Amino acid sequence: MAGILHIIGGGMAGLAAAVDVAGTGTRVIVHEAGRTCGGRARSYHDRHLDCRIDNGNHLLLSANSTVFRYLGITGALDTLSGPGEPIFPFVDLAEDARWTLDLSRGRLPLWVFQPHRRVPDMRLPELQSLYRLIRADEQTTVADCLLPGAFTRRLLEPFSISALNTLSDTGSAALLGAVVRESLSLGGHACVPWFARDGLSESLVDPAVAYLGTMNAEVRTQTRITGLDVAKGRVTALHTAQDSIALSEHDRVIVATTAPVAEGLLSQHMAGLMTPNAFESILNLHFRLADAPRPVGSFAKCGFMGVIGGVTEWVFLRGNILSVTVSAANRYAKHDHEELARIIWSELRSACDAVLEQPLPPTPDAQRIVWEKRATFAATPEQNRRRPGSATPLINLALAGDWTNTGLPATLEGAMRSGLHAVQALGLKTPS
């Protein structure tokens, strides 16, 4: 008998595991505590803005093979938007400079020898920073690897903060090095940027739930697993507030919740379970305008822009909504939210007016601040050592989540990869 795979948590890790197993002969049931799946990568209707927004902004790279495999299986590849080439527009507010990073399509980094394609004022010896990151050990921080100069300030620093959601003076160089190995070191073909055209749910959640339905998998929302029973080294029952679900000897469980929830469920059954216990926040601001801005140049081609020299880090334009992402946002936790919004809107006007047909108004029509207080684990060397693997002492239970030991920081790619690792740890599929 194939049994049932119970997946606790319908975020990206849980959905990736469900999609991977559905249709293989094993029945799949996803238990999601919230009203909808998606976790930190979902869309919803905001009453104040009176429009649909994402709870965060996620930029994919073509190197994210696990994500693109998932999108291919669920039929969602055509829901993405991007320039179709490895280009990244930037503005430096502190030094009033603009450029578009234009990476070489092949593996040879020819772009570094062409001033109009590279970071302005960078010096070629600064590329040693990349070599240091790739070779960094588990104790090294990102700051230990970065050489001073324009290449660090205008590319590696913002890249590091976005990838790790942790400042470079404490961020793990080994984790950032893993990202560099899987993207920039492979050449421009691995660095083509993509993002959800209409919304995160429209790309990452809704197609997956629909696919699971066609595969006779079951997604149970508003179903919180409150506890589990263990006997003779295996999970024997799951508990909700309403009832209990008995498990047969053929059934398996993947816990794909956040780290604190997983620890709460499992600590009494798994002595010594260690999970990350320090977290970083992400600040997102969504500004609605009466009329959709009309971008020009590379901003129009990409739909996003990197911002340096301010609080703002990334700007995404979707219709009449300008969205801003600020990573590693614990540093701003004590700031007044409305004052932060005013500062960021002022930065947006400075950053965007030169690349819009018409300048932005003095104030937006409406705005929404979305602050994810525990968006990711703090990607420090210490916290990275606290990440458990997928396999557990319980023979029919595995762990998934971007906080598990994927070898990557807490990204969409890492989350989905963890779901596949959990499936393999349970023996449901072998590594491809």
TrEMBL record:
InterPro entries: Amino_oxidase, FAD/NAD-bd_sf, SQase_HpnE, Zeta_carotene_desat/Oxidored. One of its GO terms (molecular function) is oxidoreductase activity. Keywords: Oxidoreductase. SUPFAM superfamilies: FAD/NAD(P)-binding domain. Its EC number is 1.17.8.1. Pfam families: Amino_oxidase (PF01593). The keyword Oxidoreductase applies. Residues 12-426 form the Amine oxidase domain. NCBIfam families: HpnE (TIGR03467). This is Hydroxysqualene dehydroxylase HpnE. It comes from Acetobacter lambici. The gene is hpnE.
